[in-house]
Amino acid sequence: MSTHDAAGLEDLTESIVIAIPKPLTSPLVRKGRGPLARLMRSQALSAVFQPIASLTDGRIHSHEALIRGPQSTSFYTPDALLAAAARENLNFEFENICIAVQLDRWGALGESGRLFVNISAGVLVQVLKQCGRETLLEMISGYGVLPRMLVLEITEYERVADMEELAQVVTEIRSAGISLALDDFGDGRSSLRLWSQLKPEYVKIDKYFTKNISQHADKLKTIQALQQIAAVFDSSLVAEGIETEDDLRVLRDLGIPYGQGFLLGRPNPLPREHVEAKALEVMRDRRVAVFPELRRASSTGALSRLAVLDAPTVDSTTTNEELACVFLEQPKLHAIAVVEGNRVIGIINRSLFMNEFSKLYYREIWGKKSCLIHANLAPRLIERNHNVDDLVGILTSDDQRYLSDGFIVTDNGRYAGLGTGEQLVRSVTETRIEAARHANPLTFLPGNIPISEHIERLLNSGANFVACYADLNNFKPFNDQYGYWRGDEMIRLVARIAVAHCNPQRDFLGHVGGDDFILLFQSDNWQTQCEQIIQEFAEQALALFDEPARQAGGIHADDRYGVPRFFPLTTLSIGAIQIQSNDYSTAEEVASAAARAKHDAKTAGEGLFIQSTPLCLEPS
User: Strand order of the sheet with strand 381-383?
Assistant: First the structure.
C-alpha cells in the first residue's frame, strides 16, 4: 500500500468518526495497537449482502448487510472480528464502523431495496442519545440510504437494563420511517416481553428451530406457536438458517413469509437479483411437505372434561349420627371427604357406612363417636391437571376401593370435590379415543385428524397425488386364533414396512385404526412402493403363523357367522386412486374414494387395485 493510499484511508476513517457520534469511536481506533484497530484504520473491512426472500414466490424481499475482514487473513469471518473487538476493547467502535461501512457500500451501489443492518440495543440507545433523531437521519441520508428502506436488526437486546428507555428510542426511530427487527428470536436470550413492547415489523427465528425442522415435530410446533404470537403483534417472521430443500418446503407450507440461508443465497459483495435455482424450484413446486408428527399419543388434561361433584365435607369432630344425616339428605352422594382445614385426611364410602349404621344398637354405641373410624385414611387424591397415565393407575391399582369410593379432586392441593369410578372410566376412555385421533397409540402413526389436515393441504395446493387405503385380508380369524398380542404385532409389521417404503418428505402414512392405513403419495414411483409393501408383508407375516398353518397355507377358524371354515394366510390389499387437481374438494371425499378403492381391491382379490377414474360422489 502506498503512502498516498494510506493517507486517503486515514481521511476516510476520520470521516466515519465525524459521521458517527465521536464518543462512540474514541481515540482507541486511531491510537490502538491491536490488529483490529489497524484494520479499522486502514479501511480493510468490507460489506457483503445476504438475500432475504419471500417463501411464497421466491422474490428477493431485502438483504442483510454483514461485515468481512481481508479474505486472505484469519480476520475474514465475523466471529473472528467480534472476538478481536472483545480482546481489544473496541466493541462499540467496531460496531459503529461496521454500520458505516455497510451503509456507505449500499449507498454507493445505488440500491433501492430494503436493507437489514445489525445494531446492538446498547449502541442504538447511545447513538440516539448523543446525536439525536435528526442528526441520525442526516447521517443515513448522507450515505444515500432512504430511512424508509432501512431495517435496524436489534441484537444483544438481553443486555438492556432499561426496557422502557429502549422502547422510547424505538418509537423515535420508527417515527422517522425506519423499521425494526428482532434478531435470533428463541436463542435462549430473547424476550417475549420485548417483542410485546417494541412490536417490531420483523422477527427473525433463530436457526436452531429451522435447522432440520422437517424431521422434528417439536420444532414445528414451536414455530406454529411463534406464528400465533406474530399475528397478535402484527410482525412478519423471517426463518434464518435455511440450508436444505426439505426444511424450505416445510417452512413454506407453514406459511412463514420470509426466509434467509445458504440454500436461498450466500453472502455476496453484490446484492442478488434472484435466489438460488434449487430454492426457487422448491418454492414453485406444488407438492406439499409432510409435516413431522410427534410419535406419541397425547395423554394430558384428562380431568378438564371430568364432571367434579361439588360435595360437602366433614371433619374429625363430625359424629356418625351427623354423617348419617348428611347421607340421608343427599341420596346421590356416593362418598364424603374428611377434611381438616385445607388438608384432606380421608374418605368415607356411603354404602359401607350405611350398612354399619343400620345394624342393631349401632346408634346407641357408636352414634356419638367420631365418623373417622369409618374413613379410608389413604384416599386417592387427583389434581385437576393430572394426566391420563395417573388416572389409569387408579383403574389398575390392587386396591379397588378407589373404584367404589371414587377419588378426591384437589386444586393446588386444596379440596375441590369428588369423582366417581364410573366418571373415571368414562374420562379415561374418551381421552384415549381423542388422543388416538391425533396419534394411534399402537403404531404412533398420525391418526384421523392429521390425516384429514394433510389431505386438505394437498387439495389446497392444487398438487396431484395418490390416495391409498391399505387393509389386511383375513385378519380377524388370525386375531381370534392367536390372540390380540400377535394381532397387534401384525399391525405394527404393516406400519414398519410401510414406513420403510415411504419417502418421509413426500409421502404421508396414517393409521386410521385397527388394521386400516392411509397412504398419501407424492412420489412418482408410488406404484412400485405399494407393490413392495404388499410383497414384503406377505413374506414377513409368515413368521407370525405357527408351522402347521404355514404348511397348510392358512388356518381353520369360525367366520363372522360362527361357521367353521378355512382362511388363507393373512395378506395386504391396497386400493389406490390418483387425485388430479380439482377432482375433489374435501378430505372426506378423498377418504371415501380411497375406501371404495380398497373395497374393490379386496373384492378383486388383488394386492394392489388402482381405481382408473375418480368416483362420482353424490352430494350428501
Answer: 381-383, 407-411, 414-419
3-state secondary structure labels for all residues of 149-217: HEEEEEECHHHCCCHHHHHHHHHHHHHCCCEEEEEEECCCCCCHHHHHHHCCCEEEECHHHHCCHHHCH
CATH number for the domain formed by residue range(s) 442-611 = 3.30.70.270
Give the mean model confidence (pLDDT) for residues 50-77.
Answer: 93
CB proximity list for 323: less than 8 A, separation 6 or greater: 314, 336, 348, 353, 371, 374
Tell me which fold the domain 302-432 belongs to. Answer: CBS-domain (3.10.580)
Instruction: Identify the helix (H) or strand (E) that includes residue 59.
Output: none
**Bigger pLDDT: 272 or 17?**
272
Q: Which amino acid is at 498?
A: A
The pLDDT value given to residue 305: 55
Is the pTM for the entire model greater than 0.85?
no
Which has the closest alpha carbon to 236: 210, 220, 256? 256
Q: Map residue 318 onto helix, strand or coil.
A: coil
Average pLDDT over residues 512-520: 95
Rounded to an integer, what distance in angstroms lies between the CA atom of residue 606 and that of residue 532? 14
pLDDT-above-90 percentage for the chain: 57
Instruction: Give the relative orientation of helices 245-254 and 277-284 as an angle to the nearest 10 degrees.
Output: 40
Question: Rounded to whole angstroms, how far apart are CA atoms 601 and 573?
Answer: 6
